[in-house]
Amino acid sequence: MKAGEKQMSVLILVLLSVSIAVSGQLIMKKGMNTIGFITIGEVFSIKIFSIIFQKYVFIGFMLYLLASLIWLVVISQEELSFVYPLIAIGYILTTILSKLIFNESLSMFRFFGILLICSGVYLIVLKI
């Protein structure tokens, strides 16, 4: 496989991993909206089992596991210093989808921050 083809393949895997991880985050958030507010003490108590095994939280964890497995393939094939910053794509997707799905706030400052992240990701990808 040529160097350019390899990097394109890695980028596709990064996008797949990030998309699955974002899906996991959104699904976990749906589950936590069902559970409601919890404290750090509850996370380190027996209640953690009812949290983890809440249907949506569990599915979110499994998606995160799948994204992590794909990520292992990515970091075995490319420099971590190149691919890790690309995870920032997840911040962009999560913020936009959280606004659309959960009607979370998206101030101009957050929007500007997302534009800065997009610019940074673009500069990193220019390495190709």
Mind sketching the topology for me?
Layout (H helix, E strand, L loop, with lengths): L2 H33 L4 H4 L4 H5 L2 H23 L2 H4 L4 H15 L5 H18 L3
Helix pairs in contact: 1-4, 1-6, 6-7
Structure description:
- With 128 residues, this protein is an all-alpha fold.
- It has one domain.
- The chain is 80% helix and 0% strand.
- It has helices at 3-35, 40-43, 48-52, 55-77, 80-83, 88-102, 108-125.
- Helix 1 runs antiparallel to helix 4, helix 1 runs parallel beside helix 6 and helix 6 (88-102) packs antiparallel against helix 7.
- The longest helix has 33 residues, at 3-35.
- The radius of gyration is 17 Å and the shape is globular.
- The model has no long low-confidence stretch (mean pLDDT 91).
Brief synopsis:
With about 130 residues, the chain is mainly α. The protein is about 80% helix and about 0% strand. It is built from seven helices and no strands.
Key phrases:
80% helix, mainly alpha, globular, 128 residues, 7 helices
Distance between the termini: 15 Å
Tell how many strands the DSSP assignment holds: 0
Q: State the order of secondary-structure elements, H for helix, E for strand.
A: HHHHHHH
The amount of helix comes to: over 70%
C-alpha-based Rg, rounded: 17 Å
Q: Structural class of the secondary structure composition? A: mainly alpha
Q: Choose one word for the global shape.
A: globular
For the biggest sheet, the summary is: none
Residue runs with pLDDT of under 50 for 5 or more positions: none
Mean pLDDT rating: 91
Please report the number of helical segments: 7
Number of domains: 1
The percent range for strand residues is under 5%
